[in-house]
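Reopening: Long-chain fatty acid transport protein still failing for me.
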Amino acid sequence: MRTWHLFIVLGALLGLLVIPEPAHATNGDNLISVGPVSRAMGGVGIASPQDSASAVFANPAAMCFGPYCPSSEASASMTLFKPTVKAKVTNGTGSYSATSEEKTYPIPTAALSYPLSNSLRFGLAAYGVSGMGVDYRDTGLDSIYVGAFPQSTGTYTILQRMKVAPALAYQVNNDLSIGLAVHLHYASLDLGNGPKDGITVGFQPGIIYKPTDQISLGLTYISPQEINHENVADFNSDGIMDGLKLESPQIFGAGLAWEPNMTWLIETDVKWINWSNATGYKDFGWKDQWVFNIGAQYRGFDSVVLRAGYNYAPSPVDLNDNFDGTENVIVQDKGMPRYYYETFRLVGFPAIVEHHITLGATWDISKTFSVDLAYMHAFENKISVDGTDFTGATASIESSLYEDSLTLGLSWLF
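Support: Ran it again with your exact input. Result attached.
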């Protein structure tokens, strides 16, 4: 019977692959986490993830220490994500401002954790993991300049990434577990000429160590994963469409979880995201990020679990104040005027939010079924730079972003 359950869940996960939707930026262009449990706790989960989706995403070694053990768990969720993006460009011809078309993006997640033996577990997750973009078409920002990209302000940009991650975890003893996830990574980039996609592979090892029954320590690493988006735009206006390589950066993460009793769980994570060494992001002046998050879980009721969290990461977008818009900038062997370079990266990809608060709850309908809910708000952040446009006239560029999301999920023990 358990085998049939497994096949049903695997079929649902494969069905998820046909609906890759764009996610949007939170920590850089990465979501703070996937699944409602971790998202309700500020994105924590490296030391003690509380469901199968969080385990495969945050630290595959943790599958052996999940609260669902020794059972199997399948989970599925949908996040409704709504970013609000605004921009203003002032140059020698005037001042132009607009709000990007407001959309609510559905982001699906599904995951499975299944015991192969007393000490070995298999996991599988499919999830939207990162993305960003704007749509300023048919606004004031869409008619400032004449000519095709890059002689524009980045009026339409969509980057989306999705991963399918099979994973294994091995429990060495009662205090130690190791794990490895393989990332099958799909990405699509559209700069107004249609989506250009690609696939690559990465890996994520992890380790969990429990020095006491109340404390859990976790470490994990995600390898860099590069995809070449061919024929995505004519960067140097020579009439030939150019490719753009974008590399999902390497990430180091560490976590600490403290469970003083059966009622409370406190977790905190820290991650280092190496944007400055990632192909594509380093070309557009992104800085490394340190991500700090903390979350709490309260089990003081018979069938309801409450959660809250906070997540902070400084904006990775470097600001080149007093830029000379008449200069030429080389991006992956292609030259583009600095003014268009600045408007493209600040208006087209404003991954700038820093502070996030999260809330959530779980309702245990029965011993095997539960409903999970999470809400996230990323507070508005604004950036602005001054310089000159391509004629040498005084120019300024401003962008702002805030975000809201609501996640609903179901979990099934079998």
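Residues 2-413 form a domain with the Porin fold (CATH 2.40.160.60). If you still see a failure, please send the error message rather than a screenshot.
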